Amino acid sequence: MSYRIVFIGAGNLATRLSLEFKKKGYHIEQVYSRSQKSANQLAIKLRSHYTTTPWKILPDADIYFVALKDSAFEEVLPHAAIGNRLLVHCSGSMPLSSLKKYSKNTGVFYPLQTFSKTIPVKFDQIPVFIEANTKDNEERLLELAGKISDRVSVMDSESRLCLHVAAVFACNFVNHLYTIASEILKKKNIPFEVLQPLILETAKKIHNSDPALVQTGPAVRFDRNVISTHLNALDSFPEFRELYANLSDLIFNYHKSR
């Protein structure tokens, strides 16, 4: 079935998801963003219209995808005259019920991946989690998700929140640890690239193993001499030093209790 779609948001997720829908033959009628530059750039790629004014969001599309930061919902949705069209958010942390004051037809379309505007992803490999307030709406979203992904599941809001928290640990926090590692290496003009084989091998191990079973390093065995040496080496990075000590304690205590 062909749907007329509006994207409320033009950031990383909105960009990748809308372009994927376009590739699958769906027409994106309009893009909304507070930023004219972002809205215009995405609309050009989609061959679509755009607006930066909430009350000028088209009132007669079939499905509205909301890909805004959670705090922006109240700034935009009360002004969008969409009646009871299907309104769908893409947030991992917001419950389905957060949309009920804006429409009688609501859903969630949550792709579990990190997105960047300029980096294409293979959507067929990305898990997509669906929730809706009626069976009919659920079927519509399952149909849409099935067009772009081979890994589609129905998941309730409470479970999705748990998944989102886990994803922050596995992705966002890990990426910041890469940033810290890069800052430490810069002190001695060592390129970050030397860590890439280690990073890839670590990620490869968890494809077939419980992460806890492949934990290595001085913290898991609580090698006091190595840990002390590392802490001394981090004297010029006091915030990283504290994080190193806390993570080492956390790793050791976790494995000691298993």
What is the fold's blueprint, element by element?
Elements: E1 4-8, H1 12-23, E2 27-32, H2 36-46, E3 49-51, E4 63-66, H3 73-76, E5 86-89, E6 106-111, E7 128-132, H4 135-148, E8 152-154, H5 157-186, H6 196-205, H7 224-233, H8 238-256
Parallel strand pairs: 1-2, 1-4, 2-3, 4-5, 5-6, 7-8
Antiparallel strand pairs: 6-7
Helix pairs in contact: 7-8
Relevant terms:
Rossmann fold, alpha/beta, eight-stranded mixed sheet, 258 residues, 14% strand, N-(1-d-carboxylethyl)-l-norvaline Dehydrogenase, domain 2, single chain, 43% helix
Reading off the top of the CATH hierarchy, the class of the largest domain is best stated as Alpha Beta
Q: Helix count?
A: 8
Structural class: alpha/beta
Mean pLDDT: 96
What order do the helices and strands follow?
A: EHEHEEHEEEHEHHHH
CATH architecture of the largest domain: 3-Layer(aba) Sandwich
Major beta sheet, strand line-up: 3-2-1-4-5-6-7-8
Number of domains: 2
Unreliable residue stretches: none
* CATH homologous superfamily designation of the largest domain: NAD(P)-binding Rossmann-like Domain
Strand content: 5-15%
The helix content is 40-55%
* Topology-level CATH name of the largest domain: Rossmann fold
Oligomer: single chain
Describe the main β-sheet briefly: 8 strands, mixed
Walk me through this protein's architecture.
- The model has no long low-confidence stretch (mean pLDDT 96).
- An eight-stranded mixed beta sheet has the order 3-2-1-4-5-6-7-8, covered by helices on one side.
- The chain is elongated.
- It has eight helices and eight strands.
- The chain has helices at residues 12-23, 36-46, 73-76, 135-148, 157-186, 196-205, 224-233, 238-256, and strands spanning 4-8, 27-32, 49-51, 63-66, 86-89, 106-111, 128-132, 152-154.
- With 258 residues, the chain is an alpha/beta fold.
- Strand 2, helix 2 and strand 3 form a beta-alpha-beta unit.
- The chain folds into two domains: 4-155, Rossmann fold; 159-256, Orthogonal Bundle (N-(1-d-carboxylethyl)-l-norvaline Dehydrogenase, domain 2).
